[in-house]
Amino acid sequence: MATGSEDTVRKLEQQVAMLKDQLAHAQKLTALGELASTTTHEFNNVLMTILNYARLGLRSSDEATRTKALEKIHTAGQRAAKITNSILGVARNRSQGFEPTDLATLVDDSLVLLEREMRKYRIDVERQFEPAPPVLARGNQIQQVLLNLLINARQAMPSGGRVTIRIAPDEARGMVDLTVRDTGAGIPPDKLRHIFEPYFSTKSGPDETGRGGSGLGLAACRDIIEAHRGRIRVESTVGRGTAMTIMLPIAPSNAPGAGAPVAATLPSPVSPAPATAQPAT
Questions:
Q1: Does residue 92 sit in helix, strand or coil?
Q2: 215 and 256: one domain?
Q3: Which of 46, 63, 93 delimits the end of a domain?
Q4: Same domain, 151 and 267
Q5: Statement to judge: residues 1 and 118 lie in one domain
Q6: What pTM value is reported for the model?
Q7: Closest CA to 248 of 182, 195, 169, 172
Q8: In terms of DSSP H, where are the helices of the chain?
Q9: Which residues, including other chains, have CB under 8 Å from residue 133's CB and lie 6 or more apart?
Q10: Closest listed residue to residue 141, CA positions, set 103, 174, 196, 180
Q11: Same domain, yes or no, for 157 and 117?
Q12: Distance (Å, rounded) from C-alpha 221 to C-alpha 141?
């Protein structure tokens, strides 16, 4: 029979788990609010393109001009659909199970949402995608992590720079590595060891877009990756930049396709490991 103290500990553990779920939900809503603010401007650009070419087509009697206007409207409509689908990918509540997930697709969807922001701050984005198998993941959660890493990279380069996104399989360990590398100021060693701690931030506060400074972003990323039995690692050199790498388990070859969620179990050979932070060599 459980003692009174055991019952108290159990109730406290349940309350902590519930509070963590509530915090994760609140962070997701905050991220969606920030994305809505960013994509509102992009949608406005798309709508202006559609309206301007619609007017051109209505005013012109030339068949070639009308055809060109319709083609531009069609292209703008496709862009709007991509933005909408990317937002829905972050917002939708998927099964609590894991499913085969293509990281390259998640990267492309995330960059659709941040394209205007990257242009505004003069950030060049380079993709280095090696052929890689799907990972076993909850896609919307991994996209949340990826968006956080990309926004952090952009904030580290207020005067512009380059973000390199690399995907590479590690078949020997049964993992796929996804690295986001920036050419920013880097993180001093005395701060680097603390960056995954809740409420610790290298920033003095939110930037002009209202993002960052709470110290919750990377702590939440760590929790998400460890729940996937993956790892997250950071390497940084002051004056040269920072590289964040997440490592996720490869989906079993007999796993159902992305349309059919897999039971929330992961391969036993992949064990959780703590986040690591170290200066780059």
A1: coil
A2: yes
A3: 93
A4: yes
A5: no
A6: 0.69
A7: 169
A8: 4-59, 63-91, 103-120, 139-155, 189-192, 217-227
A9: 169, 176, 250, 251
A10: 103
A11: yes
A12: 9
**Cα distance between residue 249 and residue 117, in whole Å:** 31
What is the token pair recorded at 83? Answer: 């933005």
For the stretch 212-253, pLDDT in tens is 544 457 888 898 899 899 999 999 999 999 999 999 999 998
What distance in Å separates the CA atoms of residue 162 and residue 123, rounded to the nearest whole number? Answer: 5
Tell me phi and psi for residue 136, to 5 degrees: -95, 110
pLDDT digits (tens, 9 = 90+) for 70-101: 998 988 888 787 777 767 766 665 556 789 99
Mean pLDDT over 19-34 rounds to 65
For residue 229, what are its two tokens? 């039995």
Q: CB neighbours of 190 closer than 8 A, spacing ≥ 6?
A: none
- Residues 6 or more apart whose CB falls under 8 angstroms from that of 79 comprise 46
Six token digits for residue 41: 């401007």
CA distances in angstroms from 162 to 126, 129, 150, listed in the order given: 7, 16, 11
Q: Of 58, 93, 128, which residue constitutes the final position of a domain? A: 93
CB 164 within 8 A of CB 126: yes
